[in-house]
TrEMBL record, chain A:
The keyword Oxidoreductase applies. It comes from the Bacteria. Its cofactor is thiamine diphosphate. InterPro entries: DH_E1, PDH_E1_Alpha_Subunit, THDP-binding. GO terms for biological process: pyruvate decarboxylation to acetyl-CoA. Keywords: Oxidoreductase, Pyruvate, Thiamine pyrophosphate. It catalyses: N(6)-[(R)-lipoyl]-L-lysyl-[protein] + pyruvate + H(+) = N(6)-[(R)-S(8)-acetyldihydrolipoyl]-L-lysyl-[protein] + CO2. The gene is acoA. This is Pyruvate dehydrogenase E1 component subunit alpha. Residues 17-311 form the Dehydrogenase E1 component domain. Pfam families: E1_dh (PF00676).
Automatic annotation (TrEMBL), chain B:
It comes from Novosphingobium endophyticum. GO terms for molecular function: oxidoreductase activity. This is Pyruvate dehydrogenase subunit beta. InterPro entries: THDP-binding, Transketo_C/PFOR_II, Transketolase-like_Pyr-bd, Transketolase_C. Its cofactor is thiamine diphosphate.
């Protein structure tokens, strides 16, 4: 393991910037929903910041991402602009989907965010298609499908991993094992590690500490290199912990309090922040300035979103098909 | 069989026509790709050989046999279509679409709308069905109403080689998902051959027989039951107009309303079960638009409300037949 890829100083700071953005955006999202300024289903990614941040620094804008309803962290890490995101989750016409998709269907092809699905497991079959297209074109692009541990028990997971392995597709199946499938603990629903299932399909797979930016970076780096080189798919099981209930408003009584407190005490964001300072990669002042800039950007995005108009009812007839409905 | 040799003789089968349509589209556009169970030549080009010859001609990257994984097939088609490919995906039998419904209904049909038009899914899903093979309850259903009930997907059901060719070309051209329903038992029925490159527009019905007393609206194999019924009705002095819908969704309201406004009577015939079916939708629109002009209640003839049975007499009795169409028509006119 010692000769695995290590992020250089600038990359470490960039990983942290993305993590801090995700954390700040989550805090603002929960506040805005709590205060009633916005009404939307919200699936907090708090606690899972490292995974997409360390993955996405290994990707280009034109690499593809298929993510899920708990996916704002994946999107922000991939470069989804805050203004387009906030206007969309506010249901406004300036939203990236004109307010017609909402938080569970955010899409931004310019940064490769091709599909956000509200159906557990459904990011994977479509990711295969994007990867198949790249394989036919030989364009060297990589597709990442993210999903939770719960999705590893739905049929689409098995069909997708098998097809990707047989066709040697340039795709990465990134399982974010946050220990919870909705309200049910992973260990109650599966006898094996998610990563162990890779062997069943003859593909590379590993379990990694998804809250450790270095381990996550190395795993992502290898998977991306494998896909770009024509070496086929990889299944990564990134271990993490969901800080909040399944959906905003869920009182999470089913989550063990001690386990949750322990996970929150080991907050990967503050831990990595402290490490960057301790290692002399960054200073307190630099990180504070970065965080302040992020906060400001989020504030501006929210104000911009709330000032935007709602879409007109004529939108009901548009985008059902290419031609407008009569 | 190439299109060149097919256009010379006057006859072709629907199976040949679909094969030729896909081949011609692949020849014109390198983004047209084919995937599904057994579709490549080492696997004999599908269980009925509809895609035979394509992988030998266009390569096994563009014509790919897949595992028996319907969700993965449609998912792969969706993903590739979002970045410029035009996949023609085969779901061997219409009943097998049930295991890919999430991909078809929640994704293919909705991604354009949910993304605000940023992405779209130009795929064709070919699927075969129909009673007549004694295949029983899970290999014979017509499920078109389910898809017609879903915003964002078009549903085609040709009844002839020419329409099969022309609609397949239009389906591949179309920027949105299209479900293309093929009737198995009439695959090998020869009829007038299509012309290379010919398109049949989506959403346009075809008046197969003109009449003044009654309009019969049908599609897919039911055209083959309704056509002799029109002749028998003529012998009995009843002038029936026969409309082949060809496109189930969006159906040609203009043509159907014009015909029924003229005849004042309408019967819809489909092999799918009657309750909540395509016939119910058409009947409702006829009532809304032509209430004062109807001379008789709109009638629906459809499959019996039971799973498709195995035993031959039961299977035959399941779907509407010529004699029943004649009898009901006589009752409406008389």
């Amino acid at each position: 393991m010692s000769n695995r890829a290590v992020p250089d100083a600038a990359t470490q700071v960039e990983i942290y910037r993305r993590m801090a953005l995700i954390k700040a955006n989550d805090e603002r999202s929960r506040k805005v929903v709590m205060s009633g300024r916005l009404v939307m289903p919200y699936y907090s990614p708090r606690g899972q910041e490292v995974i997409p941040s360390a993955m996405s620094v290994n990707l280009n804008d034109d690499d593809y991402l298929c993510t899920i309803y708990r996916g704002t962290h994946d999107m922000l890490a991939k470069g989804f602009p805050l203004k387009d995101l906030w206007a969309e989750i506010a249901g406004r016409v300036d939203g990236t989907c004109k307010g017609k998709g909402g938080p569970m269907h955010l899409t931004y092809p310019e940064k490769g965010v091709m599909v956000t699905t509200g159906i557990v497991g459904s990011s994977m079959p479509i990711a295969n298609g994007l990867a198949w297209g790249s394989q036919m074109r030989g364009d060297g692009r990589v597709t990442v499908a993210t999903f939770g541990d719960g999705a590893s028990n739905i049929g689409a997971f098995h069909e997708s991993l098998n097809l990707a392995a047989v066709w040697k597709l340039p795709v990465i199946f990134l399982c974010q094992n946050n220990e919870w499938g909705e309200h049910t603990a992973y260990h109650k629903t599966s006898n094996v590690r998610v990563a162990d299932r890779a062997a069943a399909y003859g593909m590379a797979g590993e379990r990694v500490d998804g809250n450790d930016p270095f381990a996550m970076y190395a795993a992502a780096n290898e998977a991306v290199a494998r896909a770009r080189a024509g070496g086929g798919p990889t299944l990564i099981e990134a271990m993490t912990y969901r800080f909040h209930g399944h959906v905003f408003g869920d009182q999470d009584a089913y989550m063990d309090k001690a386990r949750k407190a322990e996970a929150m005490e080991n907050d990967p964001v503050s831990r990595f922040r402290a490490r960057l300072i301790a290692d002399g990669i960054s200073t307190e002042e630099q990180l504070a300035a970065m965080e302040a800039a992020t906060e400001k950007e989020i504030d501006e995005a929210i104000e911009c979103a709330l000032a935007s108009a709602f879409p007109g009812v004529e939108e009901l007839k548009r985008d059902v098909f290419a031609e407008e409905l009569a | 069989m190439s299109t060149e040799t097919m256009t010379k003789p006057a006859k072709a089968t629907t199976l040949q026509a679909i094969n030729a349509a896909i081949a011609d589209a692949m020849e014109e556009d390198e983004n047209v790709v084919v995937l599904g169970e057994d579709v490549a030549d080492p696997e004999e080009g599908g269980v009925c050989g509809v895609t035979k010859g394509l992988s030998s001609r266009f390569g096994d990257q563009r014509v790919r046999s897949t595992p028996i994984s319907e969700q993965a097939i449609i998912g792969a088609a969706i993903g590739a279509s979002m970045i410029g490919f035009k996949p023609v995906a085969e779901i061997m039998l219409m009943n097998f679409t049930t295991v890919a419904m999430d991909m078809i209904v929640n994704h293919a049909a909705k991604l354009r709308f949910m993304s605000g038009g940023q992405t779209h899914v130009p795929i064709v899903i070919r699927t075969m069905t129909g009673t007549g093979f004694s295949s029983g309850g899970q290999h014979s259903d017509y499920l078109e109403a389910w898809f017609a009930h879903t915003a964002g997907i078009k549903v085609l059901a040709p009844s002839s080689p020419q329409d099969a060719y022309g609609l397949m070309r239009s389906a591949i051209d179309d920027p949105d998902p299209v479900l293309f329903i093929e009737n198995g038992p009439t695959y090998w029925t020869p009829a007038a051959a299509p012309e290379k490159g010919q398109r049949v527009p989506i959403g346009k019905a075809n008046v197969l027989a003109e009449g003044t007393d009654l309009t019969i609206i049908a599609y897919s194999r039911m055209i083959h039951e309704a056509t002799p019924a029109v002749a028998k009705l003529a012998e009995a002095g009843i002038s029936a107009e026969l409309i082949d819908l060809r496109t189930v969704a969006p159906w040609d309201r203009e043509a159907v309303l014009a015909s029924v406004a003229k005849t004042g009577r309408a019967m819809i015939v489909h092999e799918a079960v009657t309750p909540f079916g395509v016939g119910a939708e058409i009947a409702a629109v006829l009532n809304e638009e032509l209430f004062g002009k109807l001379k008789a209640p709109v009638r629906r003839l459809g499959g019996a409300f039971c799973p498709v049975p195995f035993s031959k007499p039961l299977e035959t009795a399941f779907a509407p037949q010529t004699a029943e169409i004649v009898e009901v028509a006589k009752g409406m006119v008389g």
